[in-house]
Specification:
Layout (H helix, E strand, L loop, with lengths): L2 H33 L15 H23 L2 H7 L2 H13 L6 H19 L10 H8 L2 H25 L4 H30 L8 H27 L2 H24 L7 H23 L21 E3 L5 E3 L20
Helix pairs in contact: 1-2, 1-3, 1-4, 3-5, 4-10, 5-10, 5-11, 7-8, 8-9, 8-10, 10-11
């Protein structure tokens, strides 16, 4: 391994460690904020005042910056698969710090997600060389990508306005689906901004083109939406399940968007396309297994009514009077009467 690739490898590993840890830190912050107000899963924004959540955000930003720099030193075929390490980091930390147990079948699903994503990335085609933001803009306004963008906006609006209020608390794919679909547009915008920065540093100022600022506004809007619904997913569902499903879906939609916008598969061999298809099916299989083995979180109480414990018992004294059983132990000469629904 060359020194350049070694630097990229180290940065990618560090990035995965920071990003995986950020999921746990942010969820602990979300839990702490939820104890003092409305939870993020119920539409609350109290976590914005929680220092621990901001520490998680800073940790994620550091990880993303390390990942960005890693692409400068090493090819995408080396850096991108290492992003799967963040799933392992978050799952292990969630097991020990959040007491979120990962079942054996869940581990298998996690492994399938990682293997499938690695296969997709390793067989991904090489990208074309772009020399200006205007070239990227021409790719973004081609009919195929405009149709994809319109589809993303339409599906996202349906998920946010219709599905989220009704099924967001019970179906993990709602919140993560919003993050993943919007995330594909985020990556395309960030990539355009990154190329603009690179070209500007090399001496060709790209800030003079209005397309650069449009890409920047799209990126900011998509990132804010992603973070909002990712917080809701983390606050509502098991972290060990959220991380791999988000990784698998985000990777799949990003590759799809890149293929449409940059025509990545033009000139690809049949074997490479078949390998990517197999990887995609593997990712879907892993996602299905992870979703089916998810441990349901306890439901949120929406009112002040709290059901009585089914373990309430009473005894009858010798004089015929009813009295509640003491918690210290059993009183003499009593008959235990259980609630009718005790064995339901």
């Amino acid at each position: 391994m060359s020194s350049s690739n070694l630097k990229g490898f180290i940065l990618a590993v560090v990035s995965s460690a920071f990003i995986g840890s950020s999921f746990i830190i942010k969820k602990k912050g979300l839990r702490r904020a939820g104890n003092n107000g409305t939870r993020a899963g119920s539409g609350g924004y109290g976590y914005l005042l929680e220092p621990l959540w901001w520490i998680g955000m800073v940790t994620m930003v550091v990880g993303e910056l390390a990942n960005f720099v890693a692409y400068v030193y090493a090819p995408a075929g080396l850096v991108t698969p290492l992003g799967a390490l963040s799933i392992i980091v978050s799952a292990v930390l969630a097991h020990f710090l959040l007491k979120e147990k990962l079942q054996k079948m869940g581990m298998l699903g996690c492994l399938l997600c990682i293997v499938g994503s690695v296969v997709i990335v390793l067989h991904a085609p090489e990208e074309q060389t772009l020399t200006s933001v205007q070239e990227i803009w021409d790719l973004a306004i081609q009919p195929a990508f405009l149709l994809y963008t319109a589809s993303v906006i339409a599906v996202t609006l349906v998920l946010i306005l219709y599905c989220s209020p009704r099924y967001g608390q019970t179906n993990i794919l709602i919140y993560i689906g919003i993050c993943s679909i919007i995330g594909s547009l985020t990556v395309m915008s960030i990539k355009a901004i990154g190329i603009a920065i690179k070209l500007t540093i090399e001496g060709t100022n790209q800030a003079v083109y209005f397309q650069t600022w449009i890409f920047a506004m799209v990126a900011v809007t998509c990132i804010i939406t992603q973070l909002n619904y990712l917080n809701m997913a983390l606050d509502t569902f098991n972290t060990a399940i959220v991380s791999p499903i988000y990784y698998a879906m985000f990777t799949s939609f990003t590759i799809l968007a890149s293929a449409i916008m940059f025509k990545d598969y033009s000139g690809q061999s049949v074997s490479s396309i078949a390998s990517e298809l197999c990887g995609f099916i593997t990712v879907l299989s892993g996602t299905a297994i992870l979703h089916s083995t998810r441990e349901p979180d306890p439901p949120l109480l929406t009112d002040l009514y709290t059901p009585l414990s089914p373990k309430v018992s009473w005894y009858i004294q010798s004089n015929g009077e009813w009295k509640q059983k003491d918690e210290d132990g059993s009183a003499p000469n009593f008959i235990t009467v259980l609630r009718p629904d005790y064995f339901k």
